Amino acid sequence: MGWRSWNAYGRNISQQRMTRVMDAMVDASRGVSLKDAGYNDVGLDDNYQRCASGIGETPHRGFHNWEVVGDATALTNAIDKTRFPDMKAMTDYAHSLGLRAGFYLNNCLCAERPLPHEHQEDAHYLGDALDVVRYGFDSVKIDNCGPYLDLERYQRLLNETAGDRYISVENCHWGETVPTHTWCPFSTYRTSWDIHMTWTSMFKNLQTMIKFTAKRRPLSRPGCWAYADMLEVGNLHSYEEDRSHFGAWCVTSNPLILGLDLFDSAKLDRVWDIITNPELLRINQEWAGHPGRLVRYTRPTAVSMIELEHFFADGLTREDSFHKESALHIFDDVQVIGTSVKPKMSTKTLTLTLTLALTLTLTLTPRFGLSR
Q1: One domain, residues 330 and 208
Q2: Structural domain harbouring 359
Q3: Least confident of 1-15, 37-51, 107-121, 308-322
Q4: What is the distance between the alpha carbons of residues 234 and 268, in angstroms, rounded to a whole number?
Q5: Which family is this protein grouped under (predicted)?
Q6: Could you say which of 33, 173, 186, 348 would form a disulfide bridge with 28 (CB–CB 3.0 to 4.6 Å)?
Q7: What percent of the chain has pLDDT over 70?
């Protein structure tokens, strides 16, 4: 659980903005902080580098240069010091707040080309690993835009250079590099292309989870989690869409990585009860032998329905029914424990009951003000 910069700010990121986000993560003015709720990793997503400043031929120069680091000579990242004057100070600040800090490699902005010599490639992988460790990062996202795609090599080098520190690795290869039941040199792996702040994008990304959450022997498991990308909660059309998006990620054990602007108070207030809901977070974090899965998918003439299922350590089962109506785009989040509960329908609202440790009543209003 955590936050990453891309969905909120894109390339408009700096050390100053990252440290402000860290402050926002521990702000308890709403009664509880995001860190208290479990969001403890703050990740930098691209655009820390000085493009075209590294070795290679113009116009295809990358952003890695030769550097001696300890006993090693490696190709390390050329950091843009105007925007990130002191990476180590930034991660130290995160740690002082009880947070983890996340880095980013194999960048998409000014993506690099393959280097012509094998020793240069080796030095590039080593330099990346050394940078993660020496700057004090606790996690790293490895994207799919450059040629440095050997996740097993990255994991081995991180293990060798980090000593007794554990560096968690996100495989962001857009569903192209996936684990087996015996091979998974990363902590999380993307099942999808990049998510966007639309209902359709979120819904498509959710469906890429199906093959990784089979009823028997699912590939998504502790230490090797399937991931349909960062959350767009707060960036979608309505509260109902935000809530449904978050619920779907929780039921399927997706890593919960926020991507909203934490300084937009109106937006944060709107989704606060969603992203800090203890029952939803319990559903996401608890493991009882299965990550959660698609139960049924039915498609009548106007409405598509997806039912998702999540298991609990106490043996109970939670099912969420999601209806997708072509005109309204409503998720009808029907939460069920143990028995089937039918939603109560009216012309303009849908009242649903979540039964877990307590009962909550949630009322959804149709999008665009239309009635069902």
Answers
A1: no
A2: 293-369
A3: 308-322
A4: 7
A5: Belongs to the glycosyl hydrolase 27 family.
A6: 33
A7: 79
